[in-house]
Structures are given as structure tokens and as C-alpha cells.
């Protein structure tokens, strides 16, 4: 997975819910910011809602995404959407073409289904991160961290592979606390707690055996979060993984629900040997960092 360079073209898509027309102001700012960073921006023709929350058919959105993967000039693809509709395009994606044309692909929230499906079907690493963060309230820090993580400032090819470097200005480094255990190591899969479950029973669900499971959520009170966690348990997933990373749980933490997310997880997992960490730096926050789906991670 090569890093970005000055002059590269990047694509902007919306594979989940269509954007409100008012978002064109944000998209313009995003284009300007990416231009300052040295990129040419190519926008999907299906960003905005045309009927209800839809911004085209699933097939149309998939065709645009495939066009972007097929385009050798586009070096990264940023999805700027979220919501509920992303799994609709999966049946229209050509994973062989994606595998032959690997590139940086970013999305968060509902894009969890596409990020994990691409990894499951191709082995390609994908990036759980919302590029709109670079034009939001924490944009100065986000821009700086993005540059330090994904833009190649050197000519030596050894810098062209994304790695988790010990650099606080990297989007890949996040603070955390140990809830249980003191070491975890493995390949990260996961994303949004609710959305990942939409892959259950499909050919797009990744293999959880010996993986590190990352889970976060924006919405969800205690009953919702508890029932989602219980489904992971009943599917046998929590017996297969060898570590769990909990991201931010926006609604639960904002409302100070009891039991809290850590208490819920501990009760559902009921496994004293499962390594678990908690971070507040990856999720739906405007200050969120990034985690790479399909990448090895070591935490001590």
C-alpha cells in the first residue's frame, strides 16, 4: 500500500447514504484543503441525495467505485458518507479488479461493511478514517497528522509502506488503557459495532480466527449495545479473536449510561484471559485517529 505524493489524484465517493445538498460547502472546503496538500480531487457524480436518502442505485454507486479503482491516476479513494446503505453495493463490486489495483481506501461508520469485505475478499488493507475530519473543528491537528501518516515526504522506497511508527503525530498511534491483559498482537478487523454485523452470514464477512477485533459505536443505549455484543458472542466470534480494542462509544459515554461500555463488554465476554484495551481516540469523534483493517498490530 503506497503512500501519497504531491500531484497524485484522489477520488471522493459516497457509497452509503447520499449527502445533503448543503454538504457541498464542506465538499468545496475539502477540495481546497486537498489541493493545498498537493492533490487533484475527482468527485463522484453520485454524492448527493436525489430521492429520499438515496444518491443513485447500488449498481450505479458500485460502478463509480470500480471506475475509481480501475483508474491508474487515482491513488486513494475517500468515502465521505455514512448511515445504512453501504452493504447494498457489495454484490456489484469486482473484487478481482480491486485486488489487481490496490490503493488507499478510506471510510468509517457504515463503510465498515466495505472496508472489511475488501479485506476479506482481496487481502487489501483498508483505512477506517473519515477524511472530512481534515475540514472539521480539529482540522489543524488532523491535517498535520494526516500528512505525517499518509503523505510520502521522502523519495526512498522503504517509506512507501504504511507502518505503525512511534510518532505521536501519526494518525496510527493512539492512547489507550488496558482493561484486561497486557499484550495483544495480530491482524485488525472490525469497525462499527452495528454495521459489521450486517456481514453476518454473507460471503463478505472476514475470518475472525486469531484476529484483533476493533469495535466502536456512535449511537446506541445500553440495551442496543448489549444485544449487539451478545450477537457477536452467539456467533462464536468472541471465542475466535485473540484481542479486543474498544473505540469510542459516543452516545453511551456522552450520556454516562450505566452499566458503561467496559462493564457491558466484560459481562458479555466473560473471559479472564481475553486481552482488552479501551481508546477514546478512534471512532466517530472529529478528533478521531485511524486504524488499518487488515494490518498487523502489536500492543504491549
UniProtKB/TrEMBL annotation:
Task: Name all LD-carboxypeptidase C-terminal domain ranges.
Answer: 185-298
**UniProt keyword annotations, A-Z:** Carboxypeptidase, Hydrolase, Protease, Serine protease
Q: Catalytic residues?
A: 109, 216, 284
Q: Which domain of life is it from?
A: Bacteria
Q: Which InterPro entries match?
A: Carboxypeptidase_A_C_sf, Class_I_gatase-like, LdcA_N, Peptidase_S66_N, Peptidase_S66C, S66_fam
Among the GO molecular function terms of this UniProt record, one is: serine-type peptidase activity
Q: Which Pfam families match?
A: Peptidase_S66, Peptidase_S66C
The signal peptide, as residue positions, is none
Q: Biological process (GO) annotations?
A: proteolysis
Q: What class of enzyme is it?
A: hydrolase
Might you give the EC number(s) for this enzyme?
3.4.16.-
List residues of the LD-carboxypeptidase N-terminal domain. 10-127
Q: Which family does it belong to?
A: Belongs to the peptidase S66 family.
What protein is this chain from?
Putative carboxypeptidase
Q: Which organism is it from?
A: Clostridium saccharobutylicum DSM 13864
Amino acid at each position: 500500500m503506497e503512500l501519497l505524493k504531491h500531484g497524485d489524484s484522489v477520488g471522493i465517493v459516497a457509497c452509503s447514504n447520499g449527502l445533503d445538498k448543503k454538504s457541498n460547502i464542506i465538499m468545496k472546503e475539502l477540495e481546497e484543503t486537498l489541493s493545498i496538500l498537493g492533490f487533484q480531487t475527482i468527485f463522484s457524480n453520485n454524492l448527493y441525495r436525489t430521492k429520499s436518502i438515496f444518491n443513485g442505485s447500488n449498481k450505479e454507486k458500485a460502478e463509480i467505485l470500480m471506475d475509481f479503482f480501475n483508474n491508474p491516476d487515482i491513488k486513494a479513494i475517500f468515502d465521505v458518507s455514512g448511515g445504512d446503505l453501504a452493504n447494498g453495493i457489495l454484490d456489484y463490486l469486482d473484487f478481482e479488479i480491486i485486488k489487481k489495483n490496490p490503493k488507499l481506501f478510506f471510510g468509517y461508520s457504515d463503510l465498515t461493511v466495505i472496508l472489511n469485505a475488501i479485506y476479506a475478499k482481496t487481502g487489501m488493507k483498508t483505512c477506517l478514517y473519515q477524511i472530512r475530519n481534515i475540514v472539521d473543528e480539529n482540522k489543524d491537528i488532523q491535517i498535520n497528522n494526516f500528512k505525517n501518516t499518509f503523505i510520502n515526504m521522502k523519495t526512498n522506497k522503504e517509506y512507501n509502506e504504511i507502518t505503525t511508527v512511534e510518532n505521536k503525530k501519526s494518525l496510527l498511534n493512539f492512547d489507550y488503557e488496558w482493561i484486561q491483559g497486557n499484550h495483544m498482537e495480530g491482524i485488525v478487523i472490525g469497525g462499527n459495532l452495528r454495521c459489521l454485523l450486517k456481514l453476518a452470514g454473507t460471503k463478505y464477512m472476514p475470518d475472525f480466527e486469531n484476529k484483533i477485533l476493533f469495535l466502536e459505536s456512535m449511537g446506541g443505549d445500553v440495551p442496543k449495545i448489549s444485544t449487539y455484543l451478545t450477537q457477536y458472542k452467539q456467533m462464536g466470534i468472541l471465542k475466535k479473536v485473540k484481542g479486543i480494542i474498544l473505540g469510542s462509544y459516543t452516545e453511551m459515554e456522552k450520556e454516562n449510561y450505566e452499566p458503561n461500555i467496559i462493564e457491558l463488554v466484560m459481562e458479555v465476554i466473560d473471559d479472564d484471559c481475553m486481552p482488552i484495551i479501551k481508546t477514546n481516540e478512534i471512532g466517530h469523534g472529529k478528533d478521531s485517529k485511524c486504524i488499518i483493517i487488515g494490518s498487523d498490530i502489536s500492543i504491549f
